[in-house]
């Protein structure tokens, strides 16, 4: 997984998932890694970025709203979300966005 | 700073800033905290979420593209970005997005 996703020219879509974590860590990192692997096989997936320190932020990038909906319906993804709500998250928020513009730099 | 921003009903705007950090830590955390404080005073600011672990993700939320542009032009913000490019980041990417939908949960 690249630290910074290599996304195409906008417009495309982003799902910003922010979670306030509980102290429960059993199974969490394993599930998070499994989801990051699984999502990369999903049609329409463009990239993912993840950072975590008490607050966890995972941003995934998509070609369309249809691809996002289809990923939200994925069985294994739904199981992971359910465990998140019951064990790993005090609170979480998902925001569906259209990326309109992007820019950046990288060191040579 | 709340872990999960308390944003209004969409639509509104998000700026996703993702950075691949260098090993240089001098001055970084201090500047990051100063920027998180400063941004909260900026007109049109709605909220911010931050997580970091090698990769740093900072998402700020805004009422309009005009407010985002005005924050990007802020003198102290520009100084911080310049230090980021020269010292703290191997690479970084900024994505400007329109938030179209959001949902979530929090434990009672």
From TrEMBL, chains A, B:
What EC numbers are recorded for this enzyme?
1.14.-.-
Provide the alphabetized UniProt keywords. Answer: Monooxygenase, Oxidoreductase
Q: What are the GO MF terms of this UniProt record?
A: monooxygenase activity
- Domain ABM, first and last residues per copy: 23-82
Entry-linked Pfam families: ABM
EC class, as a word, reads oxidoreductase
Q: Which InterPro entries match?
A: ABM_dom, Dimeric_a/b-barrel, Jasmonate_Hydroxylase-like
Signal peptide (UniProt feature, chain positions): none
This chain belongs to which protein, by name? Antibiotic biosynthesis monooxygenase
């Amino acid at each position: 997984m690249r630290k910074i996703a290599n996304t195409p020219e906008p417009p495309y879509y982003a799902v910003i998932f922010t979670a306030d974590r509980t102290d429960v860590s059993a199974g969490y990192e394993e599930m998070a890694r499994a989801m990051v692997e699984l999502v990369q096989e999903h049609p329409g997936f463009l990239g993912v970025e993840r950072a975590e320190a008490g607050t966890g932020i995972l941003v995934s990038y998509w070609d369309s709203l249809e691809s996002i909906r289809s990923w939200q319906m994925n069985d294994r993804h739904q199981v992971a979300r359910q465990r998140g709500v019951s064990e790993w998250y005090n609170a979480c928020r998902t925001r569906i966005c259209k990326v309109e513009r992007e820019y950046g730099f990288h060191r040579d």
